[in-house]
Amino acid sequence: MVLLGSIVNALGIIVGTLLGLLLRRIPEQMKQTILIAIGLSVVVLGIDMALKSANFFYVIVSLVVGTVIGEWIRIEDKLHQMGSMLERKLGKSQNGDIAQGFVTATLIFVVGAMAIVGALDSGLRLDHSVLLTKSMIDGFTSMVLASTLGVGVLFSAIPVFLYQGSIALFANVIHAFLPAALLELLIAELTATGGVLIFAIGINILGIKQIRVANLLPSIIIITVIVVVQYFN
Asked: Which residue ranges traverse the bilayer (predicted)?
């Protein structure tokens, strides 16, 4: 079953979130310390990912162009509008900032090499081992995130499934049209660009400065275009 790994990954996030919500009764001071620990970990993860780039200039260009597009179409505002709608139904006081939890968790779970490589393995060889490993990591991470950011983390399971599932379903097409060298380069640059976004999330979690991270998302598409065009020129 091609989508098995993606399904298990989404379920891992859901189960982890539900367990995390049960832990929300821990003392507020402990929550704040946990949140700082998460923020520091996310910052380090982002730096590690960003260093995977073979040409960081491409990453810079993609971030600048992607941010202009994201600010123009106001992705962050739209996500917060959706979060506000859900909060009215679920109750913000009990479930936290849904938009923040959703955006933070989605970027952490979606951006990275494991999501791409694992989905490709699922589609090409029906080997789900990478995504099954990722589901355990994401499950634990979602539990920790949900204990501080709330139920919004649960909704990240939807884009994770759609993103990884799409790659798995079209893996044969991707493999046929993209040379192995290009695919390897693309994964590295996507990981690096995503690492900058992950770093920005860590800054948000630590409360150093509020960055509209969702408005940086188009940079993922821009870096893909840049790498592909550069490779064939």
From this structure: 6-22, 34-51, 57-75, 96-120, 140-162, 192-208, 215-232
- Give the model confidence (pLDDT) of 12-59 as tens digits: 999 999 999 887 777 778 778 877 888 898 899 889 989 989 899 999
Length of the chain equals: 233
Give the number of other Cβ atoms within 10 Å of residue 42's Cβ. 24
- Provide the b/e sequence for 128-148 (b: ≥16 CB within 10 Å): bebbbebbeebbebbbbbbbb
Amino acid letter for position 24: R
CA-to-CA distance for 15 and 21, rounded, in angstroms? 10
Tokens of 11: 């379920």
Cα distances from 192 to residues 52, 89, 110, in angstroms, run: 5, 37, 13
Task: Report the alpha-carbon distance of residue 224 to residue 116 in Å, rounded.
Answer: 13
Q: For 149-199, how does the pLDDT look when each residue is reduced to its tens digit (9 = 90+)?
A: 888 899 999 999 999 999 999 988 887 888 888 988 988 898 899 889 989
Q: Which residue type occupies 117?
A: V
Q: What is the pTM of this model?
A: 0.80
Q: Residue 232, class by beta-carbon neighbours within 10 Å (0-12 exposed, 13-18 middle, 19+ buried)?
A: exposed
Q: Which residues fall within 8 angstroms of residue 125, CB to CB, at 6 or more apart?
A: none
Supply the Cα-derived Rg of the chain in whole angstroms.
Answer: 17
